Task: structure prediction
Amino acid sequence: MALKQSTARIDAARIRADFPIFDQLVGGKPLAFLDSAVSAHKPRFVLEALEEFYEHSYGNVGRGVYALAERANAAYEQAREKVREFVNARSPREVVFTRNTTEGINLVAYAWGLDNLGPGDVVLTTELEHHSNFVPWQEVARRTGATFKAIPVTAEGELELEALDELGRAGNVKVVAVTAVSNSLGTIVPVERLIRFAHEHGAIAVIDAAQAAPHRVIDVQALDCDFLAFSGHKMCGPSGVGVLYGRSELLERMSPFQTGGGMIRRVSVEKTTWAGLPHKFEAGTPPVAEAVALGAAIDYLGGIGLEAIAAHEHELTAYTLEQLGEQPGLTLYGPPLERRAGIVSFNLEGIHPHDVAQILDAEGVCVRAGHHCNQPLMRRLGVAATTRASFYLYSLPEEVDRLVVGLERARKVFA
Ligand SMILES: Cc1ncc(COP(=O)(O)O)c(C=O)c1O
Result:
């Protein structure tokens, strides 16, 4: 089995050589890594940037006046500038370094939500959301007395956009928080439409770009969103660093999310005032080296090109849907290929996804099994869990072939 005519726009086999993780055998087998949606591997370029920073430029930021501290500060702010360019924010003041997507969304939910929501207001998410863009809103709605609602999804895992008319007519929508790409099903969500809906109703639009930023070009000005969050670890960067883009007019008006060192202008017993943007939202020592290495990851991805990466993943997804579609007793979930990113969720009849994943593991194939932090979506699909394969720039058609062989084995074992 081979990918029908090599139409892939990137040479994934060559790219794979940049990633030391693939130099090893796992359980005596080469790694077939089909779980990049959970976290991506790191190229040597990023690992070396991390090491180089720690070896030659490490220091805390915003504190020291000696040369090394200034060098660390410059590298940290240079990384911020790379992120600004990556999402096309107007200013680095709009780029806040966080720990991850989850922290970015919590920052908005608490720092904006606690001061701007109240009884009668509506917080709108969707049934497609990762718990990270669902639970913080549900909790802040509970604390403020606001009403929490979720746009329903179809059986194919796409948003029921017809519901918007009624939701809009009911009024008082203050937040529309939506993912750009579903982590369980790969659904590409028409966020432009939802952002327009939000603004037509005087609401803020918050985009969860955890599954989008690693794979697709993001332009926050063209999107016209108010906030957008993503994680470094899913885009070849290190764990421990994420990004929150926020429109400066909103960030300026918001109270801090966390308080302490690094985010103040003046502190006295009587009163404390806040630092300017973005430092007001970066309390304590930030992930300095991780941010620098995230900057290297942005350089690395930029050198390959996000459009080319998305095209490669599209080819692999098409191939996977075709191959899995031929498997007896296999149910595929999610939208058609045209509206799907590089994620394929499925179940084998009569075999629990965890058992499937374990048998695949014995074959050296890594997939995710479970509810994928999407319990409302699983409920909608009528399943407790699925098995999920997800792709990135280093994924190869041979890995899909090994997935298929592993599934055949799972069927035999459980026959
Ligand atoms: C769509 C989506 N949102 C949010 C998250 C949470 O990301 P993190 O764990 O990096 O905060 C994930 C992680 O899988 C995700 O897929």
